[in-house]
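Hi everyone,

Forwarding the result from last night's run.
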Amino acid sequence: MRNLPTLDVLRAFFHDIRGNVALVAALAMPVVLGGVGAAIDYGMASDQRQLMQSSLDAGVLAAVRETTDASRRSIIEKYMSANFLGATLAPDGKPRQLETIDYTTQLSLKTNSDNSLTATFTRSYNTSFMGLFGFKTLTLRVKSTAAMSQSGPCITVLGSSGQDVLINSGANVTSSDCKMHVRSTANPAFIMNSGSTINLAEFCVKGVNYIKNGGTLANLKTGCAAQTDPYASAFTEPTVPSTCTTSGYFNSNTVTMEPGVHCDTGFNGSPTITFKPGLHIIKGRMIINSGATVNATGVTFYFPDVSSEIRANGGLTFTASAPTSGTYKGVLMFEKTSNASNNANKTQYIFNGSNGENLEGIIYLPNRNVTYNSTTNVTEKISMVVNQMIINSANWKISAYGGSSGSEGARLTE
């Protein structure tokens, strides 16, 4: 019969086992703690990366609407600084001190051939636990691409009575994203003369007959499905008060115009004219002399009939932008279209900002035959609807306005 181990032997055996387990546990503890620490660091780094991605996405969506590399970079940097810096916590719940972002090395931008914008942002995440094992930082990298999706043209010409677009020598119109749609089916629908350049994303003509005497016309499409009036009945026409807020001529070198009704007004000399934000109803003719400077931020101009206009006599500097909120959000200029007799009487409207013009917003003048003589010092952002258009010697840089439905919007593509 086999001899059983004595109690003392058993005690010694189990004592040895406990000693080995303790030794193994002691040896494994750093590995376990390292794994837990790594999990915490990776979790925090993942949160950082998600915040980086959402901040970069928001910045790129806003920046892609801009037309220069400098302005695009500036907007993305602002979004990253506002949404990312100081927005993280250390594992103990206290704010983590983030190092200053060096945008020159950490943020790279690329404007693609289709004018979409790709941004890449890279930064180092300082670990809290993994540094004990030699891994002091993790490299985080995010990438985002945004493009403009335009649902309609930025210039729509509605007329169809013949020669509805006339492009004269010296006209120079350029845009990477703006489309021009011409509804005319007349013969000819448009005439283009030598010494002119129209370089748009698309020049779509519903008809097929035209006269081209020279010049450069990019992306011409005839027999094209030109868009109908995109803003028909879209805007609330205001009731025009019977009393005038202003009338007659101003003689001061500096004039401030309050919102309201301006009846047959004018400005002597070459003053600086500031239109305060709001609705300005131009009743009759407002005459602005050569050499004047006009500033109108957050403004909507309304013309209650086709006899009403702002008549600029050349040599003008004109800067105007539409409201960003309220009833007339995005609308820079519009006219009365609810009256049939008014609609039947098409009249001329002249843009004469020859010293420099910067317009931003919707310009809805479907009863006007617009003559454009202006020079733009920056890229205008517009969505314009007119009856006919003549473009004379003018340097016109335009981009599709994104402040309203029916023009364009930004979307993420990556």
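The chain has two domains: 7-148, 229-412.

Cheers,
N.
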